[in-house]
């Protein structure tokens, strides 16, 4: 049984530790879950991930309750099938999927997960990030996964509904070490139907396009959509496609912030990435690591953030050492040769 301290890593430690436990069969006990947070212990979105992972490997679990600060997870045999996961709040559906996607290399049968919660909320990748950036990037190394949205969900009511279809996947070694030239940036803008008259989705896209045009970047509006939602909200996502990788950037609409400025905010994040180093954006830098652990290979990240360091520590605990090579201020190369697969 692996003993891990979950104080510093937040919900990420829970998701990563338990998916690696389910995938490898190694039991794990997490103490001090989210201990450094103002509201420690499992919150609904973390609990939903625990329950979903337990369902796909018939795990014996203790501490699976809201507010619990200790979770013991003893996995059984991993299997496919269908799982329903209702977060019950606007907790992130995309983060829930992050806890399940790394199972693909060790699945023997397809897995379908229907999740209800928030699709586009703070502190989590938006729905179009996972659909337009993460999955296309990982599909290139063999991941077989589809995310199908049925309904959007913004804070505070949530109520979004999305299906993850995950198939057994044979991953090739990951090579994300050469960004290549920028090919184009696509803009995806979505708002609640209640914002149609004020043209929020269109104005978000216009703001992003104007800022990209000022940079001289090839760009296009890929989608401007309005959706029926329980809470009013909006989101804009940029998909930056390079010759050797892709990266995503986003911004959520806020009351009192002009829609055009929301689009420009996403471009500001893109601009900081574009002039820097690294082959993956800040979200993907830590999200790709569980796949690196099973597939092997190399990823050039802009820096080792707290989230990346958390993932590296959990991987090390499971016996997957990731070598770090500083590139003289031009990013950090993370390499895995001894995989978990």
What secondary-structure arrangement, pairings included, does this model have?
Layout: E1 2-5, H1 11-24, E2 28-31, H2 44-57, E3 60-62, E4 71-74, E5 81-86, H3 93-98, E6 111-117, H4 127-139, E7 145-151, E8 160-166, E9 174-176, E10 182-192, H5 200-215, E11 219-227, E12 234-242, E13 246-252, H6 259-274, H7 282-287, H8 289-295, E14 297-301, H9 306-317, E15 323-326, E16 332-336
Parallel strand pairs: 1-2, 5-6, 9-14, 10-11
Antiparallel strand pairs: 2-4, 3-4, 6-8, 7-8, 10-12, 12-13, 14-16, 15-16
Helix pairs in contact: 1-2, 1-9, 5-6
In words, what does this structure look like?
The structure is a single chain. The protein has helices at residues 11-24, 44-57, 93-98, 127-139, 200-215, 259-274, 282-287, 289-295, 306-317, and strands spanning 2-5, 28-31, 60-62, 71-74, 81-86, 111-117, 145-151, 160-166, 174-176, 182-192, 219-227, 234-242, 246-252, 297-301, 323-326, 332-336. Helix 1 packs parallel to helix 2. With 341 residues, it is of the alpha/beta class. The longest helix is centred in the middle third of the chain and has 16 residues, at 200-215. Helix 1 links the parallel strand 1 (2-5) and strand 2 (28-31). The strands form 4 sheets. A 4-stranded mixed β-sheet has the order 1-2-4-3, covered by helices on one side. A 4-stranded mixed β-sheet has the order 5-6-8-7. Strands 9-14-16-15 form a 4-stranded mixed β-sheet, covered by helices on one side.
